[in-house]
Amino acid sequence: MLQEANYWLTTLEQPVYQTLPLPEKVDVAVIGGGFSGLSAGLRLAKAGCSVAVLETHNMGWGASSRNGGMVLTGMKLGVDTLIKSFGLQSAKRMFALSLAAIDTVERIVREEKIDCAFSRCGHLEAAWKPAHFAGYSRAAELFEKEFGHTVHVLTRSELHTEIGSDLYQGGFLDELSAGINPAQFAAGLAVAASRAGAALHEKTELLNVERQSSGFLLHTNRGQLHADKVFVGTGGYAGAAIPAPQKRLIPIGSCIVVTAPLPEALACGINPHKRMIFDSKHFLLYFRLTPDNRLLMGGRAAFLPETPTSVRESAPILQQAILSIYPLKDIPVEYVWGGGLDFAFDTMPHAGLLGDLYYASRYAGHGVAFATHLGGLVAAQMLSEKVKNPLIGFSFPQMPLYNGVPWFLPLVGMYYKFLDIVS
User: Whole-model pTM above 0.85?
Assistant: First the structure.
């Protein structure tokens, strides 16, 4: 029976945090209890700061527990585009940042003993068309020559060692990427932050931030809190209480379905190495096996923010996508859910200082690694430590007259579908 529920949340007991009154004052108030905020809170608390993490819902409620659990190398923009836009040296630093981000996730999992099925299983990009596959060899040479990073190009016949499907024209394999149970990781990160001394305040909605001569006064539904500094890690769930970051993000919905568990032989046949897989389309699909051998398939029914209607409409679309790739007509889909991710207008992650607020966000689907890493990196910046963050100093673009409501997304979706047809 199909449930409109997040499968990942069925795999853990949600930690219960003691509900404490808001303190009168802290060194740092962290807005948002996802990967970014919890990672920042963990780093700050371990440095001896008094920290309050404010979350409107439960810790990990947003994209941090709703994603596909893919911990990927690189950024949303390909290396060719990065080099053209920012130059070779900057592109190298950005790619190195993505590798460091995966290392950070792995280190935290190890140090904090978080049981979340982290595995360096690698990722596979599957070419939707021959024209897409044609660019893989050049990209592999570029990675090897300029980035010192080895990837593998697989022809259509070689692809059968990686995926039990005849749909794709070849593949691009990077073995440094990883998979994770994101809800378990978010819960473990919250426990680690609390253990380090950060105060976690769930069901605490930020209503307004008031700049004062000495720090900030935060107004919430549970009272007021004074903080010397503020870190914003709300991502695609930014609210009107902090308008400056909201006006620079594009919220986009994504939906996921998960099947019943597959027999071991069938699971091995469709994804023998348990890779994280996505295709080369603009309107892409992403899919993987969960640790208990369910098939997870994600994508977009529409290029719009997630709504209950879009989630319900996504289930049959994604189920049909499964059948177009794999012979699984006898395997029922058991879960469907949706969530929001955020893009910047330049499709780049951004982190640092915006006005007098610290922040990290706009991960464009690469949030498991980047949110965790950049949250800690900006926390180190708040502690006046020397950090290597190639994103510091980047302009944070915004559209004139844009107020955070992405009226243009249907047009973008139509354009991307057109590109998938003609590319």
Answer: yes
